[in-house]
Design a protein that fits this description.
- With 363 residues, the chain is of the alpha/beta class.
- 41% of the residues lie in helices and 19% in strands.
- It has 14 helices and twelve strands.
- The strands form three sheets. It has a six-stranded mixed β-sheet with strand order 2-4-1-5-6-7, with helices on both faces. A three-stranded mixed β-sheet has the order 3-9-8, sandwiched between helices. It has a three-stranded antiparallel β-sheet with strand order 11-10-12.
- Helix 4 runs antiparallel to helix 5.
- The two termini are 29 Å apart.
- About 4% of the residues have low confidence.
Length: 363
């Protein structure tokens, strides 16, 4: 599962990526600095894991992760190959969700590809090009499937009906996943990897003075997207870059306190990306290792067992489950058991975020 960072050139994508991953993606003041996508696997900040680590003091602590991809800046005409368009669009189709970075700050020393600061215009340029590419992909599939109609395939007729409905929505830039049944989406739409169906998070990149309350640019973005349930996060890539240069946790905390911030924007964005992918965590906890595991929201204990090892799944007997808050309250697994707070759950149990689990299995 991976999230792609997109936006016009010079909006702060690569600077933000560097802060998220502490890698060194190029970030210079000229368009198309990023050509090939930079990829980093980043730890998901989770205070619960830290608390378990303090209580148990294991030999190893392993957090959950999410894959972040920094993709080349897109420009008007990308769907027709302008700039690095085709390369960009093929890279973004391979991601599972999108972080759309919008420039919401003025700085005459940092050039804008269109010569003006207008995040709503930037948003429209990027999303219009994504829609045009989706229509191209859709038309190719429709042309191919219509050729099978001669055989009278009922399945082909159903697919054409669904895809033609999608095409109309794309033309109106009004795609709604809830307009399709699960069978329609999984059978006909998902295999095409249409970009317009990917969940999206908007990141407003502001200057240092606007990182807490935002500004008029941010207000415009929030008003524009309030009808489609997308989330907006305010971040200053400049601040995140400065935090990244500090060595110790104490130095970073002092820096954040001086700015009136409770945590870095990078941490906030990583957690939001995790949520955007419809993921959450459960934990395994013991003397040798405390570890976070990633599963989809709504997954069962059987699914969770398979994340650790296929043998756990094949020979699944039951799952020993402890609520995170109960573990913290009683301080150890043995005391939780003494208090009668550990539960035995079967395959169908839906895992809650933060569950501490141990699987019994027999191969």
């Amino acid at each position: 599962m991976k999230v792609g960072i997109v936006g016009l050139p010079n909006v702060g994508k690569s600077t933000l990526f560097n802060c998220l991953s502490q890698s060194k993606a190029q970030s210079e003041n000229y368009p198309f600095c990023t050509i090939d996508p930079n990829v980093s696997i980043v730890n998901v900040p989770d205070l619960r894991l830290n608390k378990l680590n303090e209580l148990i003091n294991p030999e190893k602590l392993i957090p959950t992760t999410v894959k972040i991809v920094d993709i080349a800046g897109l420009v008007k005409g990308a769907s027709k190959g302008e700039g690095l368009g085709n390369k960009f669009l093929s890279n973004i189709r391979e991601t599972d969700a999108i972080i759309h970075v919008l420039r919401c700050f003025d700085d005459p020393n940092i050039v804008h590809v269109d010569g003006k600061i207008n995040p709503l215009s930037d948003k429209e340029v990027v999303e219009y090009e994504l829609v045009l590419k989706d229509i191209e992909v859709l038309d190719k599939r429709l042309d191919k499937i219509k050729k099978t109609l001669r055989s009278g395939s009922e399945e082909s007729k159903k697919e054409i009906e669904v895809l033609e409905k999608v095409r109309i929505q794309l033309e109106n830039m009004s795609v709604k996943i809830e307009d399709y049944s699960e069978d329609q989406f999984l059978g006909f739409i998902k295999p095409l990897e249409l970009i317009s169906f990917k969940p999206i998070l908007y990141v407003c990149n502001v200057n240092e003075n606007d990182v807490i309350n935002g500004n008029s640019y941010v207000d415009d973005v929030k008003n524009e997207i309030k009808i489609n349930d997308s989330e907006v996060i305010i971040i200053s890539a400049k601040i995140e870059s400065e935090i990244n240069e500090l060595d110790s946790f104490e130095e970073k905390k002092i820096f954040l306190d001086d700015l009136g911030l409770k945590e870095s924007g990078s941490n906030k964005l990583i957690r939001a990306s995790y949520k955007l992918l419809n993921l959450h965590s459960y934990f395994t906890a013991g003397d040798k290792e405390v570890r976070g595991w990633t599963i989809r929201i709504g997954d069962s204990a059987y699914d969770a067992a398979g994340q650790i090892h296929t043998d756990f799944q094949k020979g699944f007997i039951c799952a020993e489950v402890i609520n995170y808050n109960d573990y913290i309250e009683f301080g150890s697994e043995s005391k939780v058991k003494e208090a009668g707070k550990m539960r035995l759950e079967g395959k169908e149990y839906i895992v809650s975020d933060g569950d501490i689990m141990h699987f019994r299995f027999n191969i």
